[in-house]
Amino acid sequence: MRNWLIVLRTAWMAIFLLSGLAWAQAPSDQSSSKSSGGSSHDLSGIWRFQRRPGQGAAAVPSDTVPPLTVWGKEKFAATKPGYGPRAAPGGNDPDLHCDPTGVPRALLMAGLLPFEIVQTPDRVHMFFEWQHMWREIWLNRREHVSNVGPLWLGDSIGWWEGDAFVVDTVGFNDKSWLDNNGDIHSDQMHLIERYQRVDQNTLKLNFTIDDPKAYTQPWVSDTKLFSLSPASKGPIQEVFCASDEEDSFTNRIRMPAIPKTNN
Fold first, then answer.
1. Which of 157, 162, 159, 161 is nearest to 190 (CA)?
2. Which helix (H) or strand (E) holds 108?
3. Tens digit of pLDDT for each residue in 139-180?
4. Contacts for 248 with CB less than 8 Å, ≥ 6 apart
5. pTM to 2 decimal places
6. How far apart are CA 54 and CA 72, in angstroms?
7. For domain 41-247, which CATH number applies: 3.30.70.3270, 2.40.128.20, 3.40.630.30, 3.40.50.300?
């Protein structure tokens, strides 16, 4: 049975990869990027987030956080991260309970566990190693579906503006976090991402979080860079979140590592 599942998984991945390759090589009027050695409209590859020195696992959209609304202050005060400088005993990090990670957090965690982009004619797929999460970005429509959400990943549509791939997402629930620091969002979050393959091995991302329920002004990220994972590191691995394994890790490793306080 296990061998049959491996064969089936390999066949599906081959279909996605071949579809993306055929689309990338199809004749079009898209511009070519001399620095990438191919089409600037091809984001395919396995990518790892480039963390700054000393950043650890707590990458945030930017170091400058916009002011929170009253609702946002209450929700943020209730977050107890499992990792990073705000880590606390009895953390309520959704990831510790195997809830879907959401975006942009899944992208900011890609320094630890990568994600893969696969393109087809009507969609861009993001496959995240953590939780084996799958995200769809639709290319064949410019409007969001009616009455969308609330969803963990929202409804994403994408298009090209020159060499930049723009992704517009709405329809989120308010259950995920923006990052490992416990920064929050509401069900009104509107996420706009701009990707650009600046050379063969580097992907650039800038994004804006427009969430008037949680923040008094949009949160504009600093520039995030991703490195193409070398072939020697192999394909995306199967890393599911199993609740009993998360509980075991928390008890054995995470909790003993949290600094003791007098509170």
1. 157
2. helix 105-108
3. 999 999 998 889 999 999 999 999 999 999 999 999 999 999
4. none
5. 0.78
6. 28
7. 2.40.128.20
